[in-house]
Amino acid sequence: MPTLSLVNFNIVCATLGGFVSLFGLVSYLCKETFYLSEACVQLVLAGVQLPKRYLQIEWRSLSLLLGPGMAAMWMCSSLLIWAMIPNFKFLHALVVGACVTPTDPVLSNSIVKGKFADKHVPRPLQRIIVAESGANDGLGYPFLFFAMYLLKYMGMGGEGFSGGGGKAMALWFYETWAYTIFLSVAYGTVVGWLSRKLLHWAEEKRYVDRESFLVFAIALALFIVGTCGLIGTDDLLACFIAGNVFTQDDWFRLETMDDSLQPTIDMLLNLAVFMWFGAVCPWSSFLNNSIIPIYRLIFLGILILLVRRLPIILAMHKYIHQIEHFSQAAFVGFFGPIGVGAIFYLSISREYLLGIQVDGKVREDAQQVAEAVNIVVWFLVICSIVVHGLSVPVGKAGYHLPRTISSVISTSTADEPEPVSISNIPHTHSTAMPRADGGGPSYRSRRRGEPRESPNPTPFRIGRSVIRPHSPSSPLPGVGQSDEPERPVNLVIHEQATSPDKSPEECLRSV
Questions:
Q1: Residue 462, pLDDT above cutoff 60
Q2: Residue 108 in contact with residue 79, Cβ under 8 Å?
Q3: pTM score, whole prediction
Q4: What is the distance of C-alpha 78 from the center of its chain?
Q5: Smaller CB count within 10 Å for the chain: N or C?
Q6: pLDDT tens-digit map of 377-434
Q7: pLDDT band for position 8 (cuts 50, 70, 90)
Q8: How far is CA 299 from the centre of its chain?
Q9: Residue 440 DSSP code
Q10: What is the DSSP letter of 30?
């Protein structure tokens, strides 16, 4: 008898395949019209798309964003979390705030590349955003482990662990900075340099086909993630450094600029990751938890999006030459989404905190922080995905909607305006011909109040004649009654230009 097999593998395959297929049907509409897009999680590709030697050239701007910028975002986020969560210590808030400190602006992919970016975001600004997001995704380790080491060795009087603050700082310098950060930078540099040399050699010998050449960066990202996980270093930072070193000479970026294979694989991986995010997100915990009420959680999400990044960018933008105007500073300050990096640090922090045990049980303070991290970070990621993902299309709709409505209303209610006759304008003498107020045989003076010969004045234009044909009932002004056809006024101007010694009257007679 056939039975339903509702196992996770079948559900995931069906859901992912159906969503990718449906999204593909309207993908161009979402990306180019509504400015919606999937996030990019490959930090190797973020490093690859930067110009050659970009990190070395723009190190001053990056130092400000990655140093004072990240520290200020960490402190602002921690202070808000400390204020909004009841009975929560500041040291505990530092752990939660560190998880949401790294920015992931590539989450709103259309902001830094695509149709919207090409029209509204200068290229230097796009590049500094990509460089900052790739680097600070991996530099969240020092902020996170600074707080977690202190919590482990000083929280609750250091119960179960000896050494105090001295041991905590020693571990922070040795394990976090020396091993995790510096080793990751060195490892990413070596792997990126060797990969570039090997790919150059294989291309020159014609050993590599086009398909393998195009997916090389994706394979390099997977290799670095796996090997860094084996040795326990920072795979996010190593991936970004390797990608930047790999394209140090700009060769690979230029070779793959017009190919769509990498973006295609990128899209599939990203959709799979965010489908998984939606499946494992603790939706019910937002409403029912012992950490923070839902109304405080919503207010915290609003404050984090407004205060976490914007003030420090506005304060530093004059020292970052890529940010030229205040409006650009507001743009960079607002678009610092919380994305995949926050979920990565959430998993790292929960694994570490749940390992702080006394007598086989998780210590009380560590348990509380682990629950707070799970609820707050997930909620802030969802808020960022919704707000930053929809802000551009909603903003553009809000900008164009009043003008569109006004245009429709004015078109339907207003009458067609009547054309204004030149004869109704009191000073309508032509600048193509000089006035002769004193009169003469060839000119008729236009004194105020004097009736005109013709109800419709003759228009003049330099270049070609637009004078209406002569008719017996409509004599040519200034010449009198004549049976000869009129001559273009521009001939008069040409005659005077070629014979400067002649008066205007003589030029008119000769024509």
A1: no
A2: no
A3: 0.73
A4: 26
A5: N
A6: 999 999 998 888 777 767 666 655 566 666 667 665 555 455 544 444 454 444 444 4
A7: low
A8: 25
A9: B
A10: I
Q: DSSP string spanning 135-154?
A: HHHHTTHHHHHHHHHHHHHH
Could you give phi then psi for residue 373, rounded to 5 degrees? Answer: -60, -45
Query: What residues have CB less than 8 Å from 376, skipping those under 6 apart?
Result: 81, 85, 96, 291, 292, 297, 300
Q: Which pLDDT tens digit goes with each residue over 276-322?
A: 888 889 999 999 999 999 999 999 999 999 999 999 999 999 999 99
Give the integer Cα–Cα distance in Å for 92 and 148.
8
Position 413, amino acid: T
Name the residue with tokens 């409509």.
474
Contacts of 1 (CB under 8 A, 6+ apart): none
φ, ψ at 450 (rounded to 5°): -75, 130
What tokens appear for 409 in the block? 């209303």
DSSP structure class, residue 342: H
Half-sphere exposure at residue 216, Cβ-oriented, CA atoms within 13 angstroms:
27
Nearest to 104 by CA among 50, 57, 42: 42
Tokens of 362: 């998780």
The tokens for 114 are: 């695509």
CA dist., res. 255 & res. 123, Å (int): 20
HSE on the CB side for 354, CA within 13 Å? 11
